[in-house]
Write a structure and sequence with these properties.
The complex is a heterodimer. Chain A is of the alpha/beta class. Helices cover 48% and strands 13% of the residues of chain A. In chain B, α2 packs across α14 (259-283) and α4 (62-93) runs antiparallel to α11 (209-224). Chain B has helices at 2-6, 8-36, 53-60, 62-93, 99-111, 114-125, 131-138, 154-179, 183-191, 196-207, 209-224, 228-233, 245-255, 259-283, and strands at residues 39-40, 48-49. The chains are: A alpha/beta, B mainly alpha. Chain B: Belongs to the binding-protein-dependent transport system permease family.
Chain lengths: 445, 293
């Protein structure tokens, strides 16, 4: 009898323990918000704290950026021994998804990366990011290249600080070009001739991973710019129209390139990483990608010097009769840092962001060959030539058109990705492409 | 101790923890999904109640219906292929030489995660370096297909690894069912002069009819909510050519910030699965179940 009572008692006790553990666990998750890494205790700031940082540069594919981040964190922890920085790294697409899930559950990291404009609008409206204006007025005053923080500002307040500034050149393999007596193209017609020549020789002209549709969007955006001039795309997206004949003509040109077999076989089923490996293996002659790839052709120790020497870049060629200029670029600020509104240690997080941006400006240039959004003094450091050239291109750029998918709101952006895939896969006509893009923009989501 | 176990309260106490877990992890989210489906919600800002608007939009959403079509195509094909699996299991259960080895071969894909399988088949389907196109080229095919980039064939290309992935599972179920048929029944039939074909079709298959029903439900519901391999291999692309219901829900909710709409799709998916299960049970209902003894 006694035993029975004991058993029942033990069971009840166990149950209570389980239930209470569950209860307190979920409570922590909700109230702690972004600072859930802070050991769950109520220590006042200034003592030992842990900041959570999420970034999108895994060691394998972006090792240059990855190394710089590690170094900055180390330096920060040495300067602020009471702070520990916990990092979580996810690859681009996973990162975007996780960010959404975390903010839906009110669990954003203290510091993380975001994209500008349309991408971050829901977060700002949902009051997820904190304003970083005090940093911009204080420590970081006049440190940024003019205009780079604009994309992160909503209603006069800035919610993110960019770390990268990128433009999209077309990289090409000089060895393949010289073997076939080719010169970098100045005009679209020359580009088409190159494509023909290379196809005749059995070399893949251009590699493109259009399963990640933003890569194909680069090509479309450039065609729009070269045909319709530097402001056409911005204005079309801002005014929710997509009827300008140049927009349709650009779509036609894109399909013409597809018809010429300009792009690697099966490009609509290849991810950007798969496509990139075609270029890195010397199988494809050209590859249009942001300047974040430059470390692979300059400083990255994992890439053989022999290959780096083979790679050059050219500006996207002009179109005959087009309104665009060869010094117009597609690009813009890359990712930027945000501080979570729900962070328990907001001041420390801001402090870290300020430190990060300044250190990033130094290290990214000298160690990694990444173009930062902060001003660079090139006179004092020795830099790889391609990097200097691109920095100069950036300084003399007439216009940098921000990526179309970043400019658009989430639903329209998603639709833009689908439509670009359809356009390059020849599943829609250029007219249908423009019509559907306009419908998506007009929906206003 | 026996007395303890006969006490209803004690039984309830034992059941309670897992009951709570199931309610919290499975049933509560279902209810919440239905609730979110009535909202306009981007997942971040406050929700706004809009009644059945999401469902009305859903009914007019062409892309959704094409994803429903793809899902149903998968469901039908998977069900048809159960016949193949059953035949394999029948042969394997018939004491053939090397049955053990074959069983293991069929089971291997089950050991791999979907992502690993997807990566493997991505390599196989690669347009230039893939083994499949290499093979076709050696056979003299000039224009090799772009397996995952061509909207006309991408569904078929995805279906092969999915079939391969689940073959072992169904073969194992059928194999176990066939093995559980008492040998005396087969022996009796053989003595009566039944041919192996007759034994298989007239005796073995009817005897496992309950198992067959279960596998049909599993295959249909599994296909309707299929997601992982498609997400990794094509992400529903190119331009939605391989979009299924679950991937469309994912795209709407996580890419398009339309959690309300995504939830509506999820709830609709649940309803379709329930209806499908009910229809299958009705279609396959038999009055008298066959017993071994």
């Amino acid at each position: 009898m006694k035993r029975k009572k004991l058993t029942a008692f033990a069971l009840i006790l166990a149950l209570i323990l389980i239930v209470s553990a569950c209860g307190s666990g979920s409570k922590n998750g909700n109230s702690n918000g972004g600072a859930s890494a802070g050991n769950g205790s109520n220590e006042p700031s200034g003592e030992k704290i842990t900041l959570k940082l999420m970034h999108l540069w895994p060691d394998g594919s972006n090792s240059a950026q990855n190394k710089v981040i590690k170094q900055i964190i180390e330096e920060y922890q040495t300067a602020n021994p009471n702070v520990t920085i916990n990092t979580e790294v996810l690859e681009n697409e996973q990162y975007k998804n996780k960010l959404k899930v975390l903010s839906a559950s009110n669990d954003l990291p203290d510091v993380g990366f975001t994209w500008a404009a349309g991408f971050m609008e829901p977060y700002v409206k949902g009051n997820m990011f904190t304003s970083l204006d005090d940093l911009l007025q204080g420590d970081l005053k006049d440190k940024f290249v003019a205009g780079t923080t604009d994309g992160y500002a909503f209603d006069g307040k800035t919610y993110g600080l960019p770390v990268e500034l990128n433009i999209v050149p077309v990289y090409y393999n000089k060895e393949i070009f010289s073997q076939n007596n080719l010169q970098p193209p100045q005009t679209l017609d020359e580009l088409k001739n190159i494509i023909k020549t290379l196809n005749d020789k059995g070399v893949t002209p251009i590699t493109l991973g259009a399963k990640d549709a933003w890569t194909a969007s680069f090509w479309y955006m450039y065609l729009v710019d070269r045909l319709g001039g530097p402001d056409l795309l911005d204005e079309s997206i801002a005014n929710n129209t997509f009827t300008d004949p140049s927009l349709i003509e650009a779509a036609k040109q894109a399909q013409e390139l597809v018809d010429m077999k300009a792009f690697v076989k099966g490009f609509n089923g290849l991810s950007n990483d798969e496509a990139k490996s075609e270029f890195m293996n010397g199988k494809a002659a050209m590859y249009a990608m942001g300047t974040w790839e430059v470390p692979n052709y300059t400083t990255n120790p994992d890439v053989p010097q022999e290959f780096k020497d083979k790679i050059g870049y050219f500006k996207f060629p002009t179109a005959a009769g087009g309104k665009g200029d060869v010094s117009d670029w597609v690009g813009g600020v890359g990712v930027g840092l945000f501080v979570s509104e729900k962070s328990k240690y907001k001041e420390e997080a801001k402090n870290f962001v300020s430190f990060f941006v300044q250190k990033w400006g130094e290290h990214s240039v000298t160690d990694a060959g990444i173009i930062p959004a902060t001003k660079v003094d090139t006179a004092t450091v020795k830099l790889p030539q391609m990097f200097i050239d691109l920095l100069n291109e950036l300084n003399s750029a007439k216009k940098v058109t921000l990526y179309a998918d970043v400019q658009m709101k989430p639903v329209a952006s998603e639709e833009h990705h689908n439509l670009v895939q359809a356009l390059f896969g020849k599943a829609v006509t250029p007219e249908e492409f423009a019509k559907k893009q306009e419908d998506a923009l007009k929906a206003g989501k | 101790m026996e007395k303890v176990m006969s006490n209803k309260w004690i039984i309830a106490l034992y059941v309670l923890p897992s009951l709570l877990l199931i309610v919290a992890i499975i049933y509560l989210p279902i209810v919440l999904t239905g609730y979110y489906g009535l909202m306009e919600w981007d997942g971040i800002s406050p929700m706004a109640f809009i009644g059945l608007d999401n469902y009305a939009t859903l009914m007019r959403d062409e892309k959704f219906w094409s994803s429903v079509n793809h899902s149903f195509l998968f469901a039908v094909l998977s069900t048809v292929f159960l016949i193949v699996y059953m035949s394999v299991a029948l042969v394997l259960s018939g004491n053939i030489r090397g049955a053990n080895l074959f069983r293991k071969i069929y089971l291997i894909p089950m050991l791999l995660s979907s992502v690993a399988i997807a990566q493997l088949w991505l390599k196989i389907y690669h347009p230039t370096t893939g083994i499949l196109n290499d093979l076709l080229t050696t056979f003299g095919v000039k224009e090799t297909p772009d397996w995952l980039a061509d909207p006309a064939i991408v569904l078929g290309a995805l279906f092969v690894p999915i079939l391969w992935q689940y073959a072992g599972f169904y073969i194992l179920i059928y194999y176990a069912a066939f093995k559980s048929i008492p040998a005396s029944l087969i022996e009796a039939a053989r003595i009566d002069g039944a041919s192996p074909w007759q034994i298989a079709v007239r005796i073995k298959v009817p005897l496992i009819s309950e198992v067959i029903k279960v596998t049909i439900v599993l295959a249909v519901v599994g296909s309707l909510k299929y997601f992982d391999l498609i997400y990794v291999m094509t992400d529903g692309g190119p331009n939605g050519a391989s979009e299924v219901m679950a991937s469309y829900m994912y795209h709407k909710a996580f890419r398009g910030f339309e959690f309300g709409y995504g939830s509506a799709i999820g709830f609709f998916l649940l309803l379709i699965c329930l209806v499908a299960t009910w229809v299958i049970r009705r279609l396959t209902a038999t009055k008298d179940t066959i017993q071994y003894s």
